[in-house]
């Protein structure tokens, strides 16, 4: 679903900025998203926090580990092939792929990973997604970083960081066990929810400023998710990803 959501955001970025759509970019963004998430799942499924926060997912990964590894290799081959056809996408790919793949690797002092840096997890994820759905698509078609493009990328960042932070609320228990100091761990569930709401409203305000109706719809959707979220009920993963909402809204408007 995340790969489809990334394509949805990419389509919305192209549509909002009136840029020519490059379907190879959709495939590249989708493949990179698949690689990043599944690579991190594979190397972390046996970790304490994943076992606590995502027990069902950890068990599923254990049962399908070989297939996942093969699919990651295939997605990598596809990505490399596409990059040879659109070399302009290479700089943002290189900029984003190393931090993305190193997201959970414990190479920092005291055996910590970037994911465990105090208060940065949601913003780290937001930045990586913005590279995927805004910088790569723009670079691939030679799009300029106009004021509208910058603001659109910032709106994407706000929506994604808001949702990432919200996800961290129901992961508090597992994150505390391994020392992952998310905003939710640092400031508590209630304050973390307020931060997510502020980010969603900021993204919505930017969307209004640039006149993007699809992104205003996304902002409304994210605000509803935040305000109705209950950390006791893990329903957020069952919702339609807002990247898909962005794509559908752009398709219809």
UniProtKB/TrEMBL annotation:
Keywords: Membrane, Transmembrane, Transmembrane helix. One of its GO terms (molecular function) is transferase activity, transferring alkyl or aryl (other than methyl) groups. One of its GO terms (cellular component) is membrane. This is Prenyltransferase. The keyword Transmembrane applies. It is found in: Membrane. The lineage of its organism: Bacteria, Bacillati, Cyanobacteriota, Cyanophyceae, Nostocales. The chain crosses the membrane at residues 23-43, 120-143, 149-166, 208-229. The keyword DNA-binding does not apply. InterPro entries: UbiA_prenyltransferase (IPR000537), UbiA_sf (IPR044878). It comes from Dulcicalothrix desertica PCC 7102. It is a multi-pass membrane protein. It comes from the Bacteria.
């Amino acid at each position: 679903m995340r790969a489809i959501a990334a394509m949805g955001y990419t389509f919305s970025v192209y549509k909002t900025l009136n840029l020519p759509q490059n379907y190879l970019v959709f495939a590249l963004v989708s493949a990179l998203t698949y690689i990043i998430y599944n690579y991190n799942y594979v190397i972390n499924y046996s970790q304490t926090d994943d076992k606590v926060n995502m027990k069902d997912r950890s068990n599923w990964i254990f049962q399908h580990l070989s297939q996942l590894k093969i699919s990651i290799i295939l997605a990598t081959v596809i990505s490399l092939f596409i990059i040879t056809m659109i070399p302009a996408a290479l700089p943002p790919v290189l900029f984003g792929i190393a931090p993305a793949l190193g997201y959970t690797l414990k190479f920092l002092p005291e055996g910590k990973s970037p994911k465990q840096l105090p208060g940065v997890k949601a913003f780290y994820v937001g930045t990586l997604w913005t590279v995927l759905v805004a910088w790569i698509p723009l670079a691939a078609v030679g799009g300029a970083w106009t004021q509208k493009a910058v603001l659109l990328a910032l709106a994407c960042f706000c929506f994604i960081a808001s949702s990432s932070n919200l996800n961290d609320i129901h992961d508090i228990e597992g994150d505390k066990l391994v020392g992952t100091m998310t905003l939710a761990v640092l400031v508590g569930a209630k304050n973390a929810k307020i931060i997510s709401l502020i980010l969603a409203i900021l993204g919505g305000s930017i969307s209004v400023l640039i006149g993007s109706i699809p992104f205003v719809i996304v902002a409304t959707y994210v605000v509803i998710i935040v305000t109705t979220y209950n950390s006791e009920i893990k329903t957020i993963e069952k919702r339609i990803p807002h990247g898909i909402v962005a794509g559908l809204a752009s398709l219809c408007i």
